Amino acid sequence: MYTDDDLSSAVENGVLPAENAQAFREFVQKKRHSTIHDEEHFRLVTGFNDIFVVIAAVLALFALGTLGNTIDDFVGGILVAATAWGLSEYFTLKRRMALPSIVLMFFCLGGVYYAVATGFAAKSAEHGGYFVLAFALTAAVAAAHWYRFKVPITLAAGLATVIGIVISSASLVFDFSDTLIKVLIFISGVVVFAVALWWDSQDRLRQSRHSDVAFWLHLLAAPLLVHPIFVTIADGDFEVSVAQALITLVLYLGLSALSLILDRRALMVSALSYVVYVFGALLTSFGVVNLGAAIIGVVIGFGLLLVSVFWHPLRTMIMRITPASLEQLVPPAR
């Protein structure tokens, strides 16, 4: 299976004329009745060999970690991280296998974090400080991993570790509270969202690796933005009621409109669990206990299917009232 990124690479290396590549893209768009950028393509599995390699790598890395842990937790973590990096030299740089590259990246970063947070923190009473150090070293490895392998998800993982540094550091300095956590998470979401939007603006037609990077960044930003808002609503002084349900619905419609403008579905998906919870609890308060989940599932499920069917007309309508400054950062309307 060939991706649009493969087509772009073929054009850059002189294998395929740009005119032929564009003609092929237009042919696929007409056949699927959808533009390429609307499909939100990202490389994951190109064949069963990807899954085969992932299974083998996971078994080998878990076994190495277990053997290393018999000596010391630090040894186990470093052994996993170093082996994952070494495997990436072949499966990422040479074979360009998407799913194994993602899994190996997580093992590499996870091994570093585990080695420091578990291996060192277990030997010290100052656990918080070592958690900051663990996140910092993991962020440094994430940066090195990005410059070496350019796996699209690595930037999102790296930013997640930076967020870990901020929150862990704040826990050492301030009187930590739920409100502070929510504020930090939301601010982090805004920053990640801005970075994702910048990457999106570099490839509005979504024909290169920039789009893949933006996809994972949006996937990280979405829960960071959504969680503090909906949890605050759920923690309000009032019980789950019609008022709370209406607030949730208005917020979700706003997120849906933003998703249409961005041509990204991550925000809508991230907020789904909160919407299901609020409306399920509302039906329960009215005595609809056994069928509440089924009713909500039918309404939301078919609603999302309708949005998918009419995605292009809805996006065209909302783009007419979108500010020009934002319009220049997102894919053009169909």
From TrEMBL:
Source superkingdom: Bacteria
Residue stretches spanning the membrane: 51-68, 74-91, 98-116, 128-147, 154-174, 180-201, 213-234, 240-262, 269-288, 294-311
Position of the signal peptide: none
Keywords (A to Z) from UniProt: Membrane, Transmembrane, Transmembrane helix
Keyword Aminoacyl-tRNA synthetase: no
The UniProt record lists the keyword Ion transport: no
Designated name of the protein: DUF2157 domain-containing protein
UniProt organism field: Pseudidiomarina donghaiensis
UniProt lineage: Bacteria, Pseudomonadati, Pseudomonadota, Gammaproteobacteria, Alteromonadales
